[in-house]
Amino acid sequence: MSDQHTAPTPAAVLPRHPADGFTADPLGVLEEGHRRHGPVFRMPVDGVDTVLVGTWAGLGELFAAERGRLDVLNTPLIHDLFGRALFNLTADGHGEARRRLRPTLSGRALPGYVPPLLDVMGPATEQWALHGTADLHGQVRELTGAMSARVLLGITPGEADAARFAAAFEEFVAATGAPPGPARYADRRYWAGRSARRELHVLFGRRAAQAGGPAAGGSALAGLVAAFADAPDEAGPLEDHLLALLIAARETTASLLTWCLVELAGHREHAEYAAAEARTVAADPDRLVARDALPALRSVLTETLRLHAPNLLSMRQAVCPFTLAGHRIETGTRVAYSPSAGHFDPKAFPRPRQFRPGRFLAGQASASRLWAFGGGAHACLGRPLAELMALAVMAAVLQRGIPSLPAGPPARISFRPAKAPIDPLPLALEPAS
């Protein structure tokens, strides 16, 4: 929180920035707002007055003040679809669920996921090398969906549950595009999503009952089942947490990986350099989880996270009064932060619009300064797994060739719900020099 000794200014008198052009150029509007008004200002978002937080320093102060003062703000639609998943929980329930989920998503659990991830991605990246793809983001979403199902549920491509899961999950994801308020009840996608939710819960329960068997090797499911075996009701059911983990692992990772390949296609010198490093992974896949290994690949991944944070805005609601950048934020105020509005801060990242992976090599900027996966009490637990998945696919692609975009870079971009090209984006792999 602010350490100013003067009385904080009420948020109601924060400078107000117009939302004109936000739909077409959201980042441009946010950047202009912060240039004119500093770390915080007010602006209508989706028709609701919202306090916007940006700049690197502004985000740091927000996350330092978050615990006990801000809760994640989700729509009624998200509460209906995801139930008591982690991002819908508050207070002690949120903390308890995080404690039980964390061990299977990071640290010592990650090396066990490398072999099954390689098994899933190998055939897909080999097809890209042979034939390219007519729609990069679509193919990447399909791949990250299969990878997520394998690691979180133990579903291997080709088994009966793979097709069942893919069909039901696609209906569920489509439902997140229904209107967020009462109009959702008139939308076919909402009811199809609710039906898919029930079907997925049944599938999760059946897989959980089999989680101790040998077929589930390399899966997080057995550990998750054990972690929630004695969980109190306030921690939410494992089935709801799995829905949240699966959608985050697929969509966030697909966005990140798509932009990694787009940037490498546009910067061949970085791709050639990273490709030499990627070839070492074929002989020693454990380098994917070694902390100090693969600096070139990791710097590309981190710089892509900086330039292309998957989530444009994350919403919070104040649960008690607190002070932010010298302004008093009252209970009930809607607060939104934009990772990109901090990542493009020239005070933290010189020449912020340029793709410069070298800024994250040893002795330079730290990846911990990025907010793409949030921060504070609600930081995304799945970041280590998402980064492992993206790093593994990027290495597999670069082992087979250098990415190129025959039709050029994406001309139109959608920023919500996750940053992605709007139109099909062809990808080809060319021989390395």
Highlighted features:
433 residues; alpha+beta; disordered N terminus
Please provide a written account of the structure.
With 433 residues, the chain is α+β, with helices and mostly antiparallel strands. Helix content is 47%, strand content 10%. The chain contains 14 helices and twelve strands. The strands form four sheets. A five-stranded mixed beta sheet has the order 2-3-8-5-4. Strands 1-7-6 form a three-stranded mixed beta sheet. It has a two-stranded antiparallel ribbon with strand order 9-12. The longest helix is centred in the middle third of the chain and has 29 residues, at 238-266. The N and C termini lie far apart (52 Å). Mean pLDDT is 92; it is low at 1-5.
Percent strand equals 5-15%
Strand order of the largest sheet: 2-3-8-5-4
Radius of gyration: 22 Å
Biggest sheet features: 5 strands, mixed
- Average pLDDT, to the nearest integer? 92
H-E order:
EHEEHEHHHHHHHHHHEEEEHHEEEE
Topology:
Blueprint (H helix, E strand, L loop, with lengths): L8 E2 L15 H12 L2 E6 L2 E6 L2 H11 L3 E3 L3 H7 L8 H11 L12 H18 L4 H18 L6 H16 L12 H22 L11 H7 L10 H29 L1 H16 L11 H13 L6 E5 L3 E3 L2 E3 L4 E4 L1 H5 L39 H18 L1 E3 L8 E2 L5 E2 L6 E3 L3
Parallel strand pairs: 1-7, 3-8
Antiparallel strand pairs: 2-3, 4-5, 5-8, 6-7, 9-12, 10-11
Helix pairs in contact: 3-8, 5-6, 5-14, 6-10, 7-8, 8-10, 10-12, 10-14, 11-12, 11-14
Q: How is this structure best summarized?
A:
With 433 residues, this protein is α+β, with helices and mostly antiparallel strands. Helix content is 47%, strand content 10%.
